[in-house]
Amino acid sequence: MDELIQYGPELFSGFLKNLLLSVLIGFFSLVVGTILAAMRVSPTPVLRAAGATYVNVLRNTPLTLVLAFCYLGLSDTLGLIFSTEVPLTNSFWLAVLGMSAYTSAFVCEALRSGVNTVPMGQAEAARAIGLTFFQSVRLIIFPQAFRAVIAPLGSVLIAMIKNTTVVAAAGYTVDVAAVMRETFDTTGVSIPIFIGIVLAFLVVVLPIGWYTGWLSRRLAVAR
Amino acid sequence: MSSASVLFDAPGRRGRLRNNLLTAVSAVVMLAILVWAVLKLDEKGQFDWAIWEPFLTAEVWQGYLVPGLLGTLYAAVLGAVFALVFGAVFGIARLSDHRWIRVPAGVIVELFRAIPLLLLIFFIWFLAPNVLGSGDYALFAIVLALTLYNGSVLAEVVRAGILSIPKGQSEAGYAIGLRKGGVMRLILLPQGLTAMMPAVVSQLVVLLKDTALGYFIVYTDLLNMGFKTLPSAYPGTKLTAAVVIGVIYIAMAMALSAFATWLEKRSRRSRRTAARPVAVSAVEGPAGGA
């Protein structure tokens, strides 16, 4: 228990960095994922192919490789540098870049499968009563697709928050996993520290799962 | 679009014109991005034959890539076998009639699903020498952590698969005089298995990708051998090595995913089960994992 109290502040500031990363990555991956999903359902073959290629490449590559590639490939080799003075700031944005790129592929798939859950009959009925394309998307398809997407998006979000522990691969070595490893290296393994960090993640992750599950059941489209 | 779409009607003359215009514009934009990337890479000398040539030599494959790949596959296979056993046991335990089995199983499954995998790997890796005496526990830590995490996800898949079978099936089983064990073994599991297979295989894709976390605890896997050891022996090959091992990972994962899709199609047609296949994303889905 003493170790947890002694290293508590350091671990807590590491955990806050995970949360900050989660917020930023959540924002960027939602934006990029929506654009990708729009590309993948567009009537333009070129855009569909580009979207599908992106999703298949990013989704099937281990996140650790994506992040290490951002760090050693994009930054070291190709010279993509966000901050020349502070290496950690550079790594921070590389981690945001890599994880947003990775997560947006999953966001895209969740959104696309949401659109696919809307039965053809709904769209046909919308056209039959004379709605235009934008009207039918806004009034018929989007409301139903949105409800089907809540639970999968919740899972993507939870996975993303848990994945922020991998950012050390991008050189950002001050997140909670890296701090925990450092602590274990110096003082040996500590069960209270591990339990403390796990509890911190549970407190963030479980309510999101419960809330999105509850919301998707409450809003579920009766078919 | 050839196939019918929820979003779009078959385009008329103006629609076709607009779509063709959009196609042309997007093709130009994509081409511009591609050209820019190629020029940028060329500027940094990434097309030099010197940094690609090593990947055509036997030493690179024999010395680095194949041992790494074998390490990855070894960890993945061990993890998959144990995770499947863990998932089957805990999935069925969660459906038990006895509260003292159901509740602890539920707590364990929910807990391990929520713990970030890397933290679990670190913890086991640092804890093992204290408990089991000194030694190399990299493989042990990866396999155990993969088992606990993916096994918990698989437990949910198993549970969903069994619950997806219509109630009439088990009622019919009880009606002909089977006991609980018999209903599970003869009626629910065989039908549930068909329904849960696609989701199981796509979770195995996640497991395969997660072996790359061995990077952090210097396990000799594809990522470590190909991305840390190899570029230090052949300077300047960082980017090329990333491309090569990326292609290997993607090929393995896509092959498994294609197998899952095939299984799903097959079980959708199958008349041997009364259950619908468990949706791949019904549980935590392939989004989980790093």
Write a structural description:
The complex is a heterodimer of chains A (223) and B (290). Chain A has a single domain (2-219), classed as MetI-like (MetI-like fold, Orthogonal Bundle), CATH 1.10.3720. In chain A, 81% of the residues lie in helices and 0% in strands. Chain A is built from eight helices and no strands. Chain A is flat, with a radius of gyration of 21 Å. Chain B has 290 residues and is mainly alpha-helical. Chain B has helices at 13-43, 49-52, 58-93, 99-114, 117-132, 138-163, 167-175, 180-210, 222-233, 238-269. Chain B starts with 12 loop residues before the first helix and ends in a 21-residue tail after the last helix. Residues 282-290 of chain B have low confidence and may be disordered. Classes of the chains: A mainly alpha (223), B mainly alpha (290). Chains A and B meet through helix 2, helix 3, helix 4, helix 5 and helix 6 of A and helix 1, helix 5, helix 8, helix 9 and helix 10 of B.
Could you give me the name of the CATH homologous superfamily of chain A? MetI-like
Query: How many separate structural domains of chain B?
Result: 2
Task: Name the shape of chain A in a single word.
Answer: flat
Rg of chain A from C-alpha positions? 21 Å
> Into which percentage range does the β-strand content of chain A fall?
under 5%
- Could you state the order of secondary-structure elements of chain B as H and E? HHHHHHHHHH
Morphology call of chain B: flat
Distance between the termini of chain B: 34 Å
| Rg estimate of chain B, integer Å | 24 Å
How many DSSP E strands of chain A? Answer: 0
Question: Percent helix among the residues of chain B?
Answer: over 70%
* Tally of domains of chain A: 1
Query: Within the CATH hierarchy, at the fold level, what is the topology of chain A?
Result: MetI-like fold
Describe the secondary-structure layout.
The complex is a heterodimer of chains A (223) and B (290).
Chain A: H1 2-40, H2 45-59, H3 63-77, H4 87-116, H5 120-128, H6 133-163, H7 176-187, H8 191-219
Helix pairs in contact in A: 1-2, 1-4, 1-7, 1-8, 2-4, 3-4, 4-6, 5-6, 6-8
Chain B: H1 13-43, H2 49-52, H3 58-93, H4 99-114, H5 117-132, H6 138-163, H7 167-175, H8 180-210, H9 222-233, H10 238-269
Helix pairs in contact in B: 3-6, 3-9, 4-6, 5-6, 6-8, 7-8, 8-10, 9-10
